[in-house]
Each structure stands twice: as C-alpha cells, then as structure tokens.
Amino acid sequence: MTEPWPAPRARRPVDAIVTLPGSKSLTNRALVLAAIAEGPSVVSRALRSRDSLLMAGALTALGSHVDTSGEDWVVTPGPFDRDAAVDCGLAGTVMRFVPPIAGLSTGTVSFDGDPHMRTRPIGEVLAALRGLGVDVPGDALPFAVHGSGAVRGGTVVVDASSSSQFVSALLLAGARYDEGVDVRHDGKPVPSLPHIDMTVAMLREHGVEVDDPASSGDANRWRVAPGPVRAVDHLIEPDLSNAAPFLALAAVSGGTVVVRDWPHETTQAGDALRDILTAMGCEVAFVDGPDATGLRVTGSGTLLGIDVDLHDVGELTPAIAALCALAEAPSHLRGVAHIRGHETDRLAALATELTGLGADVTEHDDGLSIRPAPLHGGVFHTYADHRMAHAGVIIGAAVEDVLVENIATTGKTFPDFGGFWSGLIPA
Question: b/e map of 331-350 (b: 16 or more CB within 10 Å)?
C-alpha cells in the first residue's frame, strides 16, 4: 500500500471483543525448538505473519520441514545437511535465532534480509558463535555460517545491553552443543528480560536443563546443559503486545475492549499493559462471561500522565507514547535506549512523528518526555515498523485527519490489521 491510510476517528465509545493472532515471540521460539527436537511436534494457533513464515522458511531451508498449510503447524526435524539461503526480511528473531542452529549444519548457510535489516545489531551473536567454535566471518548482514555438523559450545561473554535476543539465540541452540552453553552478560542491564524468561520457560518445557538468574543468583548468567531436546506440542498464547492498540482504543474512546483468552500467568512483556493502563486511569479486570473470557479495559474519558521505566517492555513504547500524547498531564518514558536499534530508531521516530502532529515531545538518550498540547491531522510515517503504525492509529482514533503511511507494515505480526481496526470503529 503506497497511499497513506486514513486512520478512522472514534467519535463515540468503542465496545468490542477482540481475538488476537498468536504471539510472534512464542511462535518463533516454538518453531526453533521443534526443528532441533527429537521428533515431530505441532505448534497450534501459530501466528501466520511475515516474520513467522520467514522463520518457517529458514528452518525448512536448513533441512527440517515446517508445514504451514493449516492453523496448526507440523514441524518435522530433519538433518541439517545442505547449503541454504535464509531470508531474514525484517525479522530480528530469524537473523539472531537461526545462525546458532545453522552452526549444526554440514553445509554453508547464507543470511541476508531487507535493506534496513543490514543496520540492525547482530555482531555480538556472531562473535559469540566464533568463540563457541563456529566458522562465521563478519559482523553484520549479509554473512554466512560454514557448518561442520557440530558446535563445541562452552562459556561465552556477550554484551546484550542492546537486545535480549542475543542471549535467547544462544540458549535456544545450546542443548545441542557438545558442551552446552554458558552465557555471561557483560555490559549495561539487559533489556526486555521477560523475553529471556520466556526462552528459559520454553526450554524447560522441552526437558532442557537451564540455570538462570532465578536459580543461580547470578543476574548476568544463563547456562544450558547439553542433552536432547524433547518434542513438545505448543498452544500459542495471543500476542499481548499486539493488544496495545486495541486496549488503547478503549482508553482514548472512553469505551470497553475485551481481549479474549488473556492468560492469568505469562512470560509475555505485553502483560505489563494491565498495570500501565491502570496507572493512566483505565479500569482493568479479568472477565469470565458468556460472551468472552479474557481481559477487559474500560476507558474513563480522561488519560492521566505517567512516569514509567519501560526497560523490560520496550516494545510497548510506541503505543504508550501515543497515549501519553493524548493525556491531560505530562509523561516521562524511560529506560528504552535499546529501542533505537529495533526496526527503526523508535525514539527518534516517535519524537518526529508525534511532534509533526502538534505534540510537545522532548527526546532523551533513553526515552521521551511528552507534555499536553493540542494535536492535529497530518501524515504519520511508520518507517516500515509495525509498532510505529500502532502509534499512528491510536492517535488517529482521537484526532481528525490522521493519515498513516504504509499501514501494511502491520502484517509483520497482524495480517489485515487495517481492515480489522476499521471494523471496530463505528462509522
């Protein structure tokens, strides 16, 4: 889609029940573990999106087989015994999670992606793999892993302060390494720790022995013991980070939105929305009724400003920043310097686009300060970043004549997001 998309304005309270696609983070981790497991398994309610299909394609190229023809995806491990080419697209999980298992191949596996992907950080993972015995020259896309059929493994030190995926990537493959893997972080605090907790929890479901900070008392060390990866079927939870724009719609319209099947216990970062939206003045509660079981958010008609550290849940920043631009008091979002290295520099992009619509925004090294100001219509650019598109539609729900550039980029995690969103807002 090349023409800017007119974001629909919510002129009265929205009352909706939403069923979300599956979690991208859970889907792609489940696919990786299934591809190196002892036997076939099923990933049910897998997210069907560009990122997850790229992951399925990458694992199939290596020699396993991922059947994506149905709602439930069947993964059959196979020998990694061939040369292969992996398209990472704009999927950080493909670029970072697949090279550590490509080291187990007996072939040469080349990696490349969309032009912007060549600027995203991967050097720490590649350097770590070299330290573990993998032949992988280079520090950025494009690169190639020259597999030898096995990886020695052992202890490796990484600076994961720019992405928790650096740690998860090594842990996911570590059980298949001869010595396992002992990952030690050296640097500023690791962002998005819930994503590493998710990785650890899924490894344990597969029978893998893992020591993590909770079990060892060392905040910067994770160890995976060598051993088999048991085949396990997974039922993927709804993507809670994708819930952000829908719950925000309740907040900005003064309406009610229920997200079906919201888990009471989860490792997903998006679960933090419950506390954040409560702090912004919304009523948030679990519901179990005849129409839907899940999480209900009701807007009060007034959005309160917040001062919050989003270090562990940085992916929520664009949606929260959009809400803050509509709040009646100043807000301060902190701890998210690492989101400068996501699909785009999200802090710079948010400051630019919100300011372009009239917001009063100050950009800091690690966050944003946003003060109340009257907003107006205009084009909200997305920088091929689905989270930026989410911010744009939230603003558009409250402000006339907002045009979101490249709404189709939301297909990364939610196919036909634009059509679904429009269907929720009364004409």
Answer: bbbbbbbbbbbbbbbbbebb
